[in-house]
């Protein structure tokens, strides 16, 4: 058993996959920002952005439902906004029998807008990750002036993510193998089980610490001087500039019209 | 997915753009300080050590234990990282974890990532560390106090993250404080127990197996400043919680309810980015209160920072 579902990159030969990752990062952030700035209840604007995201999804050749299917990860958080339809004052849309709670119309509009913003943003992020290799994504973030050291640390983390996740899985398997449980017998107390889990975490920490020391020694022996050097992976072509311009135009037009209204 | 997400990862769309922007600015400032601090502390070991430990936190979040009714206790990790590595290194480690979760798994949004970094990385690390250090100093050094201190630090760190998230959601008009705060605090009081138990177990193991590792975290540089920052944060939060209640209003709760009503109405102008070239929310006294709380938070933060810095300097000069 290996932790190998972690990488979300899906290889295809498509226009979106071939774009410069910087363009994709900028486009994704602009998309999420635009969606967040779109005023509550302007449905046609949200519709425009949905069409845009579906068009990009179609261009990626990942299948029409790919982003939609993966976009439900944010769903549990809807709970946080669940009170909005009840607490926003306005004309009563619906009264829950028995409890006397009322759902107001502006409240419902705002709730749906929050969901729309969240759903569109997650789809954009899904498409970015699915069409860009993670090292390329980090390279783009570095080129876009994100703190270099942080980007290098994340790159390192990504390299050892799978190693340590496998290590954790092995420990979990070992625990299951040693924790036989006779049906109907009393379970061990929660505190004890938690302590075992904690000891596992502590032991995983020691293994990680020792691994980092070995890794560092290996890096030193290969001439590491505190700087991580990367190749220039991409160059902005005419096509990339055109794609960027198109995305900005398509995003800006509905937003400006929606804000003016 | 085998990785159970912690309920603190705020997705995009749930915070207003203004709130998100403030979060990014604060997060980048904190990460910038964390990078400087750990560079002095670790030198060129910084990238490999931080990277592997970030991967460790990510993997450790998968280690869980069954609690009841299909739920399980698991780790967020900010407090544990701060106890073993010091708060600044923990900030950097948790930032890497949160960024990877958002970029790779869409666990938490991109535009709101600043607040996710603050809630789950900075606040948990500093509060966990400060409580751990403070309790050990108050009670005295022993193996048992260390475990108690670790438990308290871990539990409170999760609570602090939840309180902060509730405020961010309330200011964005997504979840009224009157309902959101008790819900978040209540749920995370339970989740915090799992965090506390696992953190305590990990410290118990380290205490027996490698006590010198714990000593490294406890003497990590910047800890004076860190505790001042954490105390400042706690004071700021207490002020933020009680300032609406301490207003000249007959009923505190009623006042909060009013504030909620106003917040929901004021949201639309906020999205329109200051229409008519006026600042509509400055004129309203309730928003002014909230704005004042925000500015106050920043000021308390700044004072704590300066006090911490001068004490640190004086100590450095004394040595």
Structural class of chain A: mainly alpha
For the record, the CATH class of chain B is Mainly Alpha
Number of domains of chain A: 2
At CATH level 2, the architecture of chain B is Orthogonal Bundle
Low-confidence stretches of chain B: 1-6, 245-290
Q: What is the end-to-end distance of chain B?
A: 52 Å
Q: Quick one: which chains have the greatest interface? A: A-B, 94 and 93 residues
Number-wise, the strands of chain B total 2
Q: Mean of residue pLDDT of chain B?
A: 74
Strands of the largest sheet of chain B, in order across it?
A: 1-2
Radius of gyration of chain B: 20 Å
- How many angstroms separate the termini of chain A? 56 Å
Give the overall shape of chain B, derived from the CA principal axes: globular
Describe the strand arrangement of the main beta sheet of chain A, using strand numbers.
1-2
Number of strands of chain A: 2
Q: In percent, how helical is the residue content of chain A? A: 55-70%
Biggest sheet of chain A: strands, sense, closure?
Answer: 2 strands, antiparallel
Helix content of chain B: over 70%
- Oligomeric state of the chains present here: heterodimer
Which structural traits does this protein have?
heterodimer; A: 261 residues; mainly alpha; 2 domains; two-stranded antiparallel sheet; 11 helices; B: 319 residues; Arp2/3 complex 21 kDa subunit ARPC3; 12 helices; 2 strands; 1% strand; globular
């Amino acid at each position: 058993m290996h932790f190998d579902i972690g990488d979300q990159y899906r290889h295809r030969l498509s226009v979106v996959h071939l774009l410069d990752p910087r363009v994709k990062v900028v486009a994704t952030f602009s998309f999420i920002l635009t969606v967040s700035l779109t005023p509550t209840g302007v449905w046609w604007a949200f519709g425009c952005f949905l069409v845009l995201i579906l068009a990009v999804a179609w261009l990626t050749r990942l299948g029409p439902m790919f982003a939609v299917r993966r976009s439900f990860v944010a769903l549990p958080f809807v709970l946080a906004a669940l009170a909005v339809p009840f607490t926003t004052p306005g004309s009563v849309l619906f009264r829950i029998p028995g409890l006397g709670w009322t759902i107001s119309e502006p409240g419902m509009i705002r709730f749906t807008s929050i969901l729309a913003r969240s759903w569109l943003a997650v789809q954009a992020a899904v498409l970015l990750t699915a069409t860009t290799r993670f090292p390329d994504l980090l390279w783009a973030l570095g080129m876009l002036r994100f703190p270099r050291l942080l980007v290098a640390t994340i790159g390192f983390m990504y390299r050892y993510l799978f190693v340590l996740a496998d290590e954790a899985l092995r420990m979990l398997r070992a625990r299951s193998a040693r924790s036989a449980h006779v049906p109907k017998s009393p379970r061990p107390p929660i505190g004890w089980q938690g302590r075992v889990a904690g000891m596992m975490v502590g032991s995983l920490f020691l293994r990680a610490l020792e691994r980092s020391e070995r890794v560092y020694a290996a890096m030193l022996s290969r001439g590491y001087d505190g700087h991580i050097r990367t190749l220039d992976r991409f160059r902005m072509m005419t096509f990339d500039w055109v794609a960027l311009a198109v995305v900005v135009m398509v995003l800006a037009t509905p937003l400006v019209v929606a804000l003016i209204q | 997915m085998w990785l159970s997400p912690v309920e603190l990862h705020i997705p995009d769309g749930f915070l207003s753009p203004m709130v998100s922007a403030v979060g990014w600015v604060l997060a980048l400032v904190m990460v910038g300080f964390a990078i400087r601090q750990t560079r002095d502390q670790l030198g060129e070991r910084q990238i490999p050590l931080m990277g592997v430990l970030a991967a460790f936190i990510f993997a450790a979040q998968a280690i869980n234990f069954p609690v009841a009714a299909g739920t399980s206790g698991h780790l967020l990790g900010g407090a544990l990282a701060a106890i073993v590595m010091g708060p600044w290194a923990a900030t950097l480690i948790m930032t890497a974890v949160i960024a990877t979760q958002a970029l790779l798994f869409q666990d938490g949004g991109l535009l709101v990532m600043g607040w996710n970094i603050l809630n789950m990385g900075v606040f948990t690390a500093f509060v966990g560390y400060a409580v751990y250090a403070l309790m050990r100093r108050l009670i005295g050094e022993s193996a048992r106090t260390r475990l108690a201190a670790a438990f308290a630090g871990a539990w409170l760190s999760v609570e602090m993250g939840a309180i902060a998230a509730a405020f961010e959601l309330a200011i964005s008009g997504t979840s009224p404080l009157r309902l959101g705060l008790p819900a978040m605090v209540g749920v995370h009081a339970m989740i915090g127990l799992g965090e506390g138990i696992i953190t305590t177990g990990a410290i118990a193991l380290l205490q027996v197996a490698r006590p010198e590792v714990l000593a490294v975290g406890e003497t990590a540089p910047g800890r004076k400043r860190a505790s001042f920052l954490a105390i400042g944060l706690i004071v700021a939060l207490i002020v933020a919680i009680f300032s609406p209640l301490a207003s000249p209003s007959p009923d505190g709760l009623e006042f909060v309810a009013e504030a909620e009503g106003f917040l929901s109405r004021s949201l639309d102008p906020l999205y329109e980015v200051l229409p008519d070239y006026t600042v509509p929310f400055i004129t309203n006294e309730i928003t002014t209160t909230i704005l004042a709380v925000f500015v106050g938070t920043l000021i308390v933060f700044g004072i704590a920072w300066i006090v911490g810095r001068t004490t640190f300097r004086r100590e450095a000069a004394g040595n």
